[in-house]
Amino acid sequence: MKIYQFQIFTTVVKVKSFSKAASLLYLSQPAVSKHIKSMEEYYGTRLFNRNNQGVSLTSAGQTVYDYAKNILQTHEELEKEIDKHLNLENSQLIVGSSVTPGDYLLPCTVWTFKDKHPKIDIKLQIGHTEDIIKKVLKEEVNIGIVEGEIPSETNLKPTTIMHDKLKFIASPTEYEQDIFTIEELKDIPLILLNEDFGIRQKFNQFLEINEIDINSLNIVAEMGSITAIKSAVESGLGVSIASHSAIKKEVYQDLLKVINMQNKFKDRLTIEFKLIHQNQTDQPNIITRFTKFLNIQNEHIFC
Amino acid sequence: MKIYQFQIFTTVVKVKSFSKAASLLYLSQPAVSKHIKSMEEYYGTRLFNRNNQGVSLTSAGQTVYDYAKNILQTHEELEKEIDKHLNLENSQLIVGSSVTPGDYLLPCTVWTFKDKHPKIDIKLQIGHTEDIIKKVLKEEVNIGIVEGEIPSETNLKPTTIMHDKLKFIASPTEYEQDIFTIEELKDIPLILLNEDFGIRQKFNQFLEINEIDINSLNIVAEMGSITAIKSAVESGLGVSIASHSAIKKEVYQDLLKVINMQNKFKDRLTIEFKLIHQNQTDQPNIITRFTKFLNIQNEHIFC
DNA sequence: AACAATTACGCACCACGTAAGGATA
DNA sequence: TATCCTTACGTGGTGCGTAATTGTT
Q1: Cβ–Cβ gap B285/A42 under 8 Å
Q2: Reduced 3-state DSSP string for A155-178
Q3: Residues of B with CB below 8 A from A85's CB?
Q4: Which element (helix H / strand E) includes A132?
Q5: I need a labelling partner for A251 at 20 to 30 A (CA). Which of A129, B149, B194, B213 fits?
Q6: Where are the beta strands (DSSP E) in B26-175?
């Protein structure tokens, strides 16, 4: 049994629904289903009565709930106690991030971290990759989370903490097709981020790998903001390319649609987010702490 | 974090050694190492001081230990409470098993189950596969764990719960070679189990697949007991074939040695242990309970 | 040299998401 | 039929053991 499964379980109990719990936990509904099923197998009995209005606890489930609350609380206390050992209280952490993770992923992460460590003062700064690298080197920020390449002469050793798929986006009212061919890509009006952005650099690489001359494309605008790009695409001014996490909300709301690429294209168009920090020998505990926090899988760091 | 990891952790604390904990938990030593490492990463701090005399808790480790004991105890209470719900107390379970699992694997399993459910009366009967199948059908035993094929007309739906490798064994003083060729196999004096045993049936299949006539072999004896076979082989009377779990103790003590087969041989010589029980619609909770107990991975059912 | 933990590697199983299927008001 | 849960399947990640390596007395 995992602590994590108790968290899923208690969430389900609270909202009386697998699907609602799934969306609260940033999981798919089948994933929640399977965790509950595995708990039911472990304890050898049904824990929820299912019906199409949601779910309710069985009496065995009520028992598990009572104990699960206890275990979760104890474990939370343990984590707070460890924090005290590490002297994390009243310390400060400044995270520098490039635009995509900074705007779309880290806010929730930072919020979660703050919730878990209320006495730590954590700040988030957003900028382009180069600037963040400079600030890490000057120790103006403690941790950087950036896209694109890290020059090796900086001696920063980047570790990849997440990757995100890049996708073509278009207005659902203007574009009916679900797939692009190479030929179509050359005609369609493109709105791109400027070259300060890791996403744009990745797209340029993509063109090279697929042997497409950038001058053969119909680029109608270059912009310096993801929000601006999204507005332009929503208005039907053209097609663009964006990171999945930056557009999932709009796709869900039907303001944007994703157009897939033909299989022929040779690259996978994914972008990696890398973590960098100064490698001090006596690294403050707080940096280790936040780094580990990001690295722990199955804990929904980015939400 | 997993409950299981707390168990590993507390075991290490108690015996002050990764390797000793590993052998108590029926794990390899690197496996324990990695679990502790992953806990240290999770909590962001070292939990043990290592040295070549064993390990000792750091102060953060002491904190984890205090809370871990609490969590483990709470979880154990939860399991007992669930047992009460299922009315498992004072019920009876008879497990029928064929020889290899019954003699070498289940005793510890049954002991563990009894330890976890002290009010359940669990008994273990050992016999040949056919007999166990009959007893399951007559409901003289509640659960069967057997080797070999289950006739489909019994309507028992076997589920494989473990597999074991079959290995050639010889006396380490009589045989120096580490590998057999097909030709050598035909000359060597063989001591085999009789055909009541799943292991022997599997060996016959193995010969067929490799197109070896059983009459071309030098079979010096057939016996009806694994213990007898082992004694004969230890005395240097010949070579035999046995299930890994039945001989690992003797191999460790250097009373027996394993001789591998040449790659040419076409079969893998593994034997499967299958669980069978009557599929009653209102199956007693206790059968479900024991079945799940066997099925739960990572909990070292066979030890 | 001996003992104990770590790292490397390959294999099997588990966790996830997507998509299709099933049950119930 | 709408809503919600379950099953099926493919992919990537985790856990395991074996074997080689490192580190400490």
Answers
A1: no
A2: CCCCEEEEEEEEEEEECCCCCCCC
A3: 45, 59-60, 63
A4: helix A129-137
A5: A129
A6: 48-51, 54-57, 92-97, 121-126, 143-146, 159-170
B74 and A79 within 8 Å at the Cβ level: the answer is: no
Do residues A189 and A252 share a domain?
Answer: yes
CATH code where residue A12 lies: 1.10.10.10
∠B67-A27-A253 over CA atoms, to 5°?
140
Weakest mean pLDDT among B32-41, B54-63, B248-257, B278-287: B278-287
DSSP code at position A2: B
Are residues B128 and B168 both part of a single domain? no
State whether residue A270 is helix, strand or coil: strand
Judgement on whether residues A167 and A260 belong to the same structural domain of the protein: yes
Q: Does residue B215 approach strand C to less than 7 Å at its CB?
A: no
B292 in A contact zone (CB under 8 Å)? yes
Tell me how many degrees the CA angle B83-B285-B69 measures, rounded to the nearest 5: 25
Same domain, A229 and A186: yes
Choose among B71, B292, B295: nearest Cβ to A71. B71
Residue nearest to nucleotide C3 (CA to C1'): B52
B53 touches strand C (CB under 7 A): yes
pLDDT tens-digit series, residues B211-268: 889 999 999 999 999 999 999 999 989 999 998 888 877 887 788 888 877 666 656 6
What's the gap in Å between the CA of B274 and the closest CA on chain A?
19
> Do B257 and B114 have their domain in common?
no
CA distances from B269 to B63, B164, B168, B183 (A): 48, 9, 10, 18
B124 Cβ nearer than 7 Å to chain C strand = no
Question: Closest partner residue to A59 among B2, B78, B85, by Cβ?
Answer: B85
Q: Based on the fold, state whether residues B291 and B150 are members of the same structural domain.
A: yes
Amino acid identity, residue A109? T
CA distance A272 to B29: 35
* Cβ A71 vs Cβ B71: under 8 Å: yes
The CATH number linked to A242 is 3.40.190.290
Query: Which pLDDT tens digit goes with each residue over B106-145?
Result: 887 787 788 778 888 888 899 988 899 999 888 899 888 8
For chain A, the domain total comes to 3
- Count other Cβ atoms within 10 Å, centred on residue B102: 21
Tell me the residue range of the domain where B295 lies: 92-162+272-301
Name all protein residues with C-beta less than 7 A from any atom of nucleic acid chain D: A 17-19, 29-30, 33-34, 36-37, 50, 52-55, 297-298; B 2, 26-31, 34-35, 38, 51-52, 298
Band the pLDDT of A194: cuts 50, 70, 90: very high
How far apart CA B150 and CA B133 sit, in angstroms, is 8
